[in-house]
Amino acid sequence: MRLWLCLGFALAFQHGIALDDEPGSSAADFESQAKVVRLLQTVIQDYWHGAAATNGTGNSTNVEAAFRQACNLMPSRMDLRFGLASSLISQATQTNGLELTTKLNGALQVYRQIEALNTNSFEAPILSAAYTRAVGESNQSNTAISRVMSLYPQRTTEYVERFRRLDLLLEMVPNSKAPKDLPRDNHHAIVILGAGLETNGTIKAKLVSRLREGLKLARLNRAAPIILTGGNQKAGITEAYAMSQWLEKRGVRRKRLYLEDKARDTVENALFSSEILQRLGVTHVTLVTSSNHIRRGFADLQEACSQRGLNLQFDSLAANTKGDVDLDKKQERLGVYRDVMRTSGLWAYPGLQR
Predict the structure, then answer these.
(1) CA distances from 276 to 38, 220, 228, 242, 257 (A)
(2) In 3D, which of 191, 158, 215, 217 has the Cα closest to residue 298?
(3) Do residues 58 and 50 make contact, with C-beta atoms less than 8 angstroms apart?
(4) How far is CA 240 from the centre of its chain?
(5) Which CATH architecture has domain 2-169?
(6) What angle do CA 248, 320, 96 make, to 5 degrees?
């Protein structure tokens, strides 16, 4: 409980909203703070160890309900409102059609409330601009950009350029054949994204497909370091460790393998892998993941490397698994935009998860 009390206070400062914005000194205010901590403790912890770890729907509606109640208890806490909006966006990325629109509109309404309470907000209007652009609402997006451009011209311009690059990337056709003319030295790295394991820690078909494609690349360039990224555990085994065992059994030397075994999702895959790429000093990266995940993984990794100032050449190799289906286009775009906004440094859940 002490940790969560500290988190509760840390949350209040994430977007420049101090606890003093509440009346502050009364017993009722401290009681509200304690209620918020208790309310979020079980729900959020359960979510991070469950649905969020596997990109599943899980109890995301419970997260929304928890943040709604928390906002009612402490209405001036902007971090709680951002958390509510993020829970709605998260649900929108897991569905399509009318439900996607409903959840997205709910999040946009929360962002407007934040803007009304904090007229100097950068995060709320730029997130509105990103998500409306993602679903093709260009007029709404441009209006939000105009609102924030006058306050933060340089930062806004950087995000507008980011949106332009992202739109181009989203038109990318997944490449199911190994890229030609790959470097044949250790300046080229291979990054293989993890996928959920079976409950007993064994590898599922989706991840086997990714590993097979990664193995092809490893044999084409026997000097390339291979980053295996995925920290979700089943039976005490992480995705990265299970992947390393699979590759070693097929003749890949252990010293070529770099295990990133902390990431819980694609954003963290990118953030933690970019750190390893920087340390290795590579100049060329080939990303391997499933065909219906390639644009998202590619966008996240490029953004993470950009945040580190890395000037790398990128390409990708898509793995196909029987039963894979393409995502609804609007759903995929919204999910990719959401991930890149997180990777760029805008917190999804202030103080809790980037």
Answers:
(1) 37, 22, 11, 19, 11
(2) 191
(3) yes
(4) 18
(5) Alpha Horseshoe (1.25)
(6) 125
Give, in words, the CATH class of 188-319.
alpha beta
Residue 35, token pair as written in the block: 């209620």
Alpha-carbon distance of 108 to 9, in angstroms, equals: 26
More confident residue, 274 or 13: 274
Q: Report how far residue 128's alpha carbon sits from residue 86's, in angstroms, rounded to the nearest whole number.
A: 11
In angstroms, rounded to a whole number, what is the distance separating the alpha carbons of residues 58 and 20?
35
| Alpha-helix runs per DSSP H in the chain | 2-13, 27-48, 51-54, 60-73, 78-92, 97-117, 123-134, 138-149, 153-169, 205-220, 239-249, 266-280, 294-307, 329-343
d(CA 22, CA 20): 5
Question: What pTM value is reported for the model?
Answer: 0.89
Domain ranges of the chain: 2-169, 188-319
Rg (CA), the chain: 21
CA 176 – CA 161 distance, rounded (Å): 29
Q: How far apart are CA 108 and CA 140, in angstroms?
A: 10
Greater model confidence, 191 or 60: 191
How many whole angstroms separate alpha carbon 254 and alpha carbon 261? 15
Residue 55 CB contacts under 8 Å (≥ 6 apart), including other chains: 94, 265, 266
User: What single-letter amino acid sits at 251?
Assistant: G
* Predicted local distance difference test score (pLDDT) of residue 23: 45
Per-residue pLDDT tens over the stretch 175-219: 989 888 888 899 999 999 999 999 999 999 999 999 999 999 999
CA atoms within 13 Å, Cβ hemisphere of 273: 36
CA distances from 275 to 229, 281, 282 (A): 12, 10, 11
3-state SS of 13-53? HCCCCCHHHCCCCCHHHHHHHHHHHHHHHHHHHHHHCCHHH
